[in-house]
């Protein structure tokens, strides 16, 4: 979901990385949705050349996707095709997470892989030749790192430059009309964004394909000419570049590669789930849970998978003992851990099979995050009231809230009104009886609350990013000042950046997971 402060945050990231001109084009697309080149020129009042160059930068860095909208006439007229551009909000906010991605690759693979990935993150898209040319290491080392990243799905082929989309469905049109009336950011835009991304994505067989075979000769054998006259590194480079030609790449159409953000978010989602389990259960349960994630990962087709595929007890045990720490766990201990994990239902059991309930884990983590915000901002009494209403899931009268939370009845409506005013509660007023006595009923609407909390988080992230930028400017100005003042500034900035990282973890919980 894209909120108002989410857009501000995304535009701020683009401004910091690419300047005001590119950010203006990006903001136009984020606020207005897909537009043609001419429409962007009219909306931004920039020249056609400025808009084109800005779009090229945004496309190069995977922040905008071009697509062709195939519009068939209502009365059987000929189809009209127009190239439109849509901002990819999810990809834009990933730019703040690049340090997390590099750290992950360094730990899971090696430093050489991290260096290769860093080049892709810096430049957005690169061909194999460009990767070889900019690398400090030999070609054979670079190709080995490339293959490791590809096998781990941390990199992928770039999407099609202009996929063709048909007219929006009736459901999308209806949603768009409702959105125009409400004046809010709509899910219809997200639906269209998802359709564009899916249409542009290479097929699964091609997405992670890297062939190194040389072309067949006229007599049917492999062309191995000149293979003995080149060094192993040059031969690897030659084969790698030939693989681009085999998959349809020419001088005009070179195969480009980019970071696969989905894979990184998958890993971070799994890590968050494991940490959630670790906070509630012992090490044995954590090992069993981690083994289940590892065994079912390949079957997950999308990041926001609600449930893993089911596994038998034997399959889980087989996966557990693959790790060094899991070899000390007995079969019965695995069974006992699965019983533990079923309450709360992080793992669901059915017909002697077990599956991970991702949806439940994420929902519990989201609830705890919101409850912690309420506790810090409004105090313990408000926290107890909010928790009661959140867990009940239905409307409760003011007096019942007071009785259940042991809060003074005079204070209860005051606290509830504060929460309602800040959009944490939903209020319904009823009049009952002949005298029409007013009753106030309260509840937590988790769907609208999730959007509100996410918008608050984007607001905080926007403010933090601006404050960090200010501190950096101050550090530059104080370069010739006393050492103590410079150290204090540095300490303050590092604290702000640490807060940014923690806040981004919370944003991922509500937006990406």
Automatic annotation (TrEMBL):
Residues 370-437 form the DNA-directed RNA polymerase III subunit RPC3 winged-helix domain. Keywords: DNA-directed RNA polymerase, Nucleus, Transcription. InterPro entries: POLR3C_WHD (IPR055207), RNA_pol_III_RPC82-rel_HTH (IPR013197), RNA_pol_III_Rpc82_C (IPR008806), RPC3 (IPR039748), WH-like_DNA-bd_sf (IPR036388). It is found in: Nucleus. Residues 145-363 form the RNA polymerase III Rpc82 C -terminal domain. It comes from the Eukaryota. Coiled coil: none annotated. One of its GO terms (cellular component) is RNA polymerase III complex. One of its GO terms (molecular function) is single-stranded DNA binding. Residues 216-244 are annotated as: Disordered. Residues 9-67 form the RNA polymerase III subunit RPC82-related helix-turn-helix domain. One of its GO terms (biological process) is DNA-templated transcription. It holds the Pfam family HTH_9. DNA-dependent RNA polymerase catalyzes the transcription of DNA into RNA using the four ribonucleoside triphosphates as substrates. Specific core component of RNA polymerase III which synthesizes small RNAs, such as 5S rRNA and tRNAs. Component of the RNA polymerase III (Pol III) complex consisting of 17 subunits. Belongs to the eukaryotic RPC3/POLR3C RNA polymerase subunit family. This is DNA-directed RNA polymerase III subunit RPC3.
């Amino acid at each position: 979901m894209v909120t108002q402060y989410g857009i501000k945050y995304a535009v701020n990231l683009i401004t910091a990385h690419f300047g005001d001109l590119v950010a203006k084009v990006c903001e136009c697309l984020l606020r207005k949705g897909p537009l043609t080149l001419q429409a962007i020129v009219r909306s931004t009042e920039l020249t056609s050349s400025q808009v084109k160059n800005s779009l090229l930068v945004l496309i190069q860095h995977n922040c905008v996707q071009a697509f062709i909208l195939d519009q068939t006439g209502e009365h059987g007229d000929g189809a009209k095709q127009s190239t439109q551009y849509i901002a990819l909000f999810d990809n834009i906010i990933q730019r703040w997470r690049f340090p997390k991605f590099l750290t992950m690759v360094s730990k899971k693979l090696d430093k050489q892989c991290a260096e290769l990935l860093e080049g892709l993150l810096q430049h957005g898209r690169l061909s194999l030749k460009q990767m070889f040319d900019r690398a400090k290491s030999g070609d054979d080392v670079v190709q080995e790192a490339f293959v490791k990243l590809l096998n781990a799905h941390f990199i992928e082929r770039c999407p099609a430059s202009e996929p063709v989309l048909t007219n929006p469905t009736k459901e999308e049109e209806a949603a768009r009309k409702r959105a125009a009336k409400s004046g809010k950011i709509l899910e219809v835009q997200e639906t269209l964004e998802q359709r564009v991304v899916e249409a542009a994505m290479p097929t699964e067989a091609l997405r992670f394909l890297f062939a190194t075979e040389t072309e067949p000769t006229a007599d049917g054998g492999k062309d191995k000419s000149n293979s003995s006259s080149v060094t192993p590194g040059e031969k690897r480079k030659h084969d790698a570049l030939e693989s681009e030609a085999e998959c349809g790449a020419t001088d005009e159409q070179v195969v480009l590669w980019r970071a696969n953000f989905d894979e990184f978010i998958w890993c971070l989602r799994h890590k968050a789930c494991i940490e959630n389990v670790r906070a509630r259960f012992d090490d044995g349960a954590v090992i069993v849970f981690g083994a289940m994630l590892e065994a079912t990962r390949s079957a997950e087709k999308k990041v926001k998978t609600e449930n893993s595929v089911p596994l038998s007890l034997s399959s889980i045990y087989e996966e557990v003992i693959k790790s060094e720490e899991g070899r000390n766990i007995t079969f019965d201990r695995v069974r006992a851990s699965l019983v533990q994990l079923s309450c709360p239902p992080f793992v669901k059991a059915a017909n002697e099979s077990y599956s991970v309930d991702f949806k439940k884990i994420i929902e519990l983590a989201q609830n705890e995050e919101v409850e912690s915000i309420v506790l810090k901002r409004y105090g313990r009494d408000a926290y107890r009231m909010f928790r009661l209403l959140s867990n009940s899931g239905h409307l409760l009268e003011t007096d019942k809230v007071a009785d259940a939370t042991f809060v003074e009845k005079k204070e209860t409506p005051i606290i509830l009104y504060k929460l309602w005013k800040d959009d944490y509660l939903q209020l319904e007023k009823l009049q009952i009886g002949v005298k029409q006595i007013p009753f106030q009923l309260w509840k937590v609407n988790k769907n609208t609350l999730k959007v509100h909390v996410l918008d608050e988080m984007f607001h905080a992230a926007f403010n933090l990013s601006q404050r960090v930028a200010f501190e950096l400017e101050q550090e530059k100005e104080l370069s010739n000042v006393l050492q103590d003042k410079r150290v204090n500034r540095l300490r303050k900035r590092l604290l702000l950046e640490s807060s940014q990282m923690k806040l981004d973890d919370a944003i991922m919980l509500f937006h990406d997971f």
